[in-house]
């Protein structure tokens, strides 16, 4: 009898996981479709998100790693699942706040043709194009929201964290925080790794392990988007 109860419990858990996976897959598909429709204003939408109310973890799920849970080592609770669904809806709300009401139809017969990995790659491709525009505005000094000064540096720090997640999603699944402390941008990961950037003159430099500047952000961005 005890064995039967255990088997039933496993079956219920597996069924709940399957239901969440399908529901979340559908949300990500709908969000990706809206992102495609918003391509011409996506830099502005991303700017609003980076400078807005969202935590760095929420921003990461919205823009860079919607499939984060697939490779995460951290177990998910029901609250985590609810948050993931909400964050996809928040992304669509940000798009609608800029474009008004738009409709992206999800055909039930088609969603099973998608995988979360493919959807993540699709989102990063579209978002990377918009981030490229934002980063080039930063480098040229033409961005009113991401200037190279200490007033705007917290926003810059969050934008750099997003850039890193898009550049190397496999390495930066567990993004934990991105904030400015003692005038240094600290991008932290759950595994304890920290990437540091500092404003030096009219540029932003990545710092090495002992805190010395070794590479300007402008070089990183130019190299990234030439590949």
Task: Report the sheet-strand fraction.
Answer: 5-15%
Number of domains: 1
Helix-strand makeup class: alpha+beta
- Could you tell me the radius of gyration in angstroms? 19 Å
Number of DSSP E strands: 5
Q: What's the average pLDDT? A: 80
String of helices and strands: HHHHHHHEEEEEH
CA-based shape? globular
Q: Detail the poorly predicted runs.
A: 2-17
- The helicity comes to 55-70%
Total of helices:
8
- Termini Cα gap: 60 Å
Biggest pleated sheet: 5 strands, antiparallel
Instruction: Strand order, main sheet: write it out.
Output: 1-2-3-4-5
Key words describing this protein structure:
227 residues; alpha+beta; 57% helix; disordered N terminus
If you had to describe this structure to a student in words, what would you say it looks like?
The protein is α+β, with helices and mostly antiparallel strands. It has one domain (9-100, 115-226). Helix content is 57%, strand content 13%. It has helices at residues 2-37, 42-50, 56-63, 68-71, 78-99, 116-140, 153-167, 217-226; strands at residues 175-181, 184-189, 194-200, 203-207, 213-216. It has a five-stranded antiparallel sheet. Helix 3 (56-63) crosses helix 7 (153-167). The longest helix has 36 residues, at 2-37. The model is unreliable at 2-17 (pLDDT under 50).
List the helices and strands and how they pair.
Layout: H1 2-37, H2 42-50, H3 56-63, H4 68-71, H5 78-99, H6 116-140, H7 153-167, E1 175-181, E2 184-189, E3 194-200, E4 203-207, E5 213-216, H8 217-226
Antiparallel strand pairs: 1-2, 2-3, 3-4, 4-5
Helix pairs in contact: 1-5, 1-6, 2-6, 3-5, 3-7, 6-7, 6-8
């Amino acid at each position: 009898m005890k064995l039967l109860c255990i088997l039933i419990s496993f079956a219920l858990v597996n069924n709940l996981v399957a239901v969440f996976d399908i529901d979340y897959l559908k949300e990500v598909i709908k969000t990706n479709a809206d992102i495609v429709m918003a391509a011409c204003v996506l830099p502005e939408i991303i700017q609003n998100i980076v400078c807005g109310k969202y935590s760095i973890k929420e921003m990461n799920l919205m823009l860079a790693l919607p499939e984060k849970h697939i490779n995460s080592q951290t177990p998910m609770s029901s609250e985590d699942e609810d948050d993931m669904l909400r964050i996809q809806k928040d992304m669509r709300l940000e798009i609608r706040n800029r474009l008004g009401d738009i409709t992206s139809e999800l055909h039930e017969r088609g969603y099973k043709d998608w995988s979360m990995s493919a959807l993540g790659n699709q989102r990063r491709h579209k978002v990377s194009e918009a981030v490229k525009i934002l980063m080039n505005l930063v480098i040229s000094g033409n961005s009113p929201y991401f200037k190279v000064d200490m007033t705007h540096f917290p926003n810059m720090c969050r934008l750099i964290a997003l850039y890193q997640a898009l550049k190397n999603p496999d390495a930066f699944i567990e993004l934990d925080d991105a904030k400015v402390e003692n005038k240094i941008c600290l991008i932290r990961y759950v595994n304890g790794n920290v990437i540091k950037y500092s404003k030096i003159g009219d540029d932003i430099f990545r710092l090495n392990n002992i805190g010395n500047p070794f590479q300007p952000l402008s070089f990183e961005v130019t190299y990234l988007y030439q590949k």
